[in-house]
Specification:
eight-stranded mixed β-sheet, three-stranded parallel β-sheet, 17 helices, 16% strand
Length: 371
């Protein structure tokens, strides 16, 4: 093959690739990967109606699923919603995301400055993400089922999950844990009076040693299924994200069943983790302009207020409060007052080298060991 012919073929392929990439970027679509039940019913429809951009929307149930998909590359998604720490922070270090073009997200100016400052732990300089929803982790329980088994149950405490003399009382009606060590281990350390953000082999061993004999009391470990089971009365006590538990409570109240459960929610008195989920654009996003438009739309005060009203998670857009229902705005587990806020701690920072593997191995053993 002559040099001239080879050069001509190379140029043709290059132009074809460029044209294909341009068509992909011009395509009126945005590929979104978000948590389950994390938008209002009409959010996507409104976006398409106002922008002409179609939304291809997929959901996941925990950060580990999102992380695995992003780390393999070429996920095909334009906007994703990782929790700020440790997942988003680790993914930034791995080069997963493209910097946001703030000129294309004018609604970002309405985001609470204190929340942006807190995000710098994960995203120094606030280059890659903007906050979406915020929530503590806590307990949801079926009031009647718990009272029947333990009338004076310590419902405001992690004892409900981690004191063997207490949690064993509720095994018969179904107790569940979130299936992620980045939530359960800090909760156990908090219950034990230790630093919940300590990520050392000694702290991990301490927490897992305390958890191991409790495993038989938990019906399952899952970060999604617990919502439907608690709402239907199939389980009675769940470790979960407060926003999810608010949805559970609402579904139970709206149920037509004669024996619908009475669901209560609590942030344990010992303290609890608070998470910020962010909106970010993968570096290889096929439609980055549409991604910026989608993020900007979600940060509009009336739109994000609709989402908060629907899903029960707080947001970081101050101007949205005027659109949020009084029931949501005044709910102390969604927008906690100062005394509850004082008991909350931020999510885990990125783990030291090698610690993630150790934690994953310990968690896998715990998850599968029913004793």
């Amino acid at each position: 093959m002559s040099v001239r012919l080879f050069a001509h073929m190379a140029l043709t392929l290059l132009l074809l690739f460029a044209a294909t990439a341009a068509r992909a970027d011009d395509e009126k679509v945005v590929n979104v990967y978000n948590w389950s039940d994390y938008v209002a019913k009409d959010t996507l429809e409104k976006f398409t109606r106002e922008t002409g951009i179609k939304v291809r929307y997929d959901t996941y149930g925990d950060n580990e699923i999102l992380d695995a998909k992003l780390m393999t590359g070429q996920s095909g998604y334009d906007v994703v919603f990782p929790s700020a720490t440790p997942f988003f922070a680790q993914q930034i270090k791995a080069g997963i995301y493209r910097p946001l073009d703030r000129s294309k997200i004018p609604n970002a100016k309405g985001v609470d400055g204190d929340v942006m400052t807190s995000l710098t732990r994960a995203d120094p300089g606030n280059l890659y993400g903007l906050p979406y929803m915020m929530s503590a982790t806590g307990l949801g329980y079926n009031v009647d089922a718990i009272n029947r088994r333990m009338p004076n149950a310590p419902v405001d405490s992690w004892r409900m999950l981690f004191d063997p003399a207490v949690v064993s009382r509720f095994k018969s009606c179904g107790v569940t844990l979130l299936d992620t060590p980045t939530e359960v281990v800090p909760a156990m350390l908090t219950f034990m009076g230790r630093d919940p953000l300590e990520q050392t082999p000694a702290a991990l061993d301490t927490a897992m040693h305390a958890l191991a004999p409790l495993r038989a009391n938990y019906r399952y470990l899952n970060s999604d299924k617990y919502r439907s089971d608690l709402a239907s009365g199939d389980t009675c006590l769940a470790h979960g994200y407060i926003g999810d538990l608010v949805q559970v409570r609402a579904r139970a109240r709206e149920s037509k069943a004669a024996n619908k459960p009475n669901i209560a929610i609590v942030i344990p008195k010992e303290g609890a983790m608070v998470n910020i989920d962010v909106m970010a654009i993968p570096a290889d996003a096929p439609h980055p302009d549409a991604a910026h438009a989608f993020i900007n739309f979600l940060l509009r005060p009336d739109i994000i207020a609709d989402i908060t009203n629907a899903v029960g998670y707080a947001n970081a857009v101050n101007a949205s409060l005027q659109y949020i229902s009084p029931e949501i705005k005044n709910d102390p587990v969604i927008y906690p007052p100062a005394d509850i806020k004082a008991r909350l701690f931020s999510a885990l920072p990125p783990a030291p080298p090698g610690f993630d593997r150790q934690r994953t191995r310990a968690w896998t053993k715990f998850r599968t060991d029913r004793q």
